[in-house]
Amino acid sequence: MDLNQYPGENYANPRTCFFHVLFKASSLAFYILSALFIDNFVIIFVVTVLLSALDFWVVKNVSGRILVGLRWWNEINDLGESVWKFESLDQESLSRLNKKDSWLFWWTLYLTAVAWFILGIFSLIRFQADYCLIIGVCLTLSVANIIGFTKCRKDAKKQIQQFASQTIASQVSSTLQSAFSVV
């Protein structure tokens, strides 16, 4: 998707977009640069995972709501089963969301996971199993957001389709009732 596809449209939420990218870039940049300048694995682990956890939280609780109108969480019910919960804006509000904001959200969500995966391959090639632990945690947080928001988007589309079907059925039913009430 080309960003110039939406002429004249700017980011509606530039601050949110900035922080959405900032936390992703900071965890990746710290991990890459720390390997060059810091020789302490514990510091690299703690700071990288902390930055990645901040990214996870910002995406899940702030930028997901503002940029794409979606929110997800997972609960454990009384039977000990995992239950996914989804929230989304209504159809009209979803259609008014800024396309550039949405584009930035989805592409950075996926590209971050790809970057962690590639860094994981490099760590395996260099036989750095301890660094694979850092990457495993960061990749898990990235993939959790991908899965959560993808399921949430599918659920939102399903709700919109159900609402449309119910509206059409209601219109047909009221039209038939009014037609037969005249007779």
From TrEMBL:
Lineage: Eukaryota, Viridiplantae, Streptophyta, Embryophyta, Tracheophyta
InterPro entries membership: TVP23-like
Protein name as catalogued: Golgi apparatus membrane protein TVP23
Compartments (UniProt record): Golgi apparatus membrane; Membrane
Superkingdom to which the source organism belongs: Eukaryota
Keywords: Golgi apparatus, Membrane, Transmembrane, Transmembrane helix
Function: Golgi membrane protein involved in vesicular trafficking.
TM helices/strands, residue ranges: 28-58, 103-125, 131-150
Any Pfam family: DUF846
Topology relative to the membrane: Multi-pass membrane protein
Cellular component GO terms, alphabetical: Golgi membrane
Family of the protein in this entry: Belongs to the TVP23 family.
Primary localization: Golgi
One biological process term in Gene Ontology: protein secretion
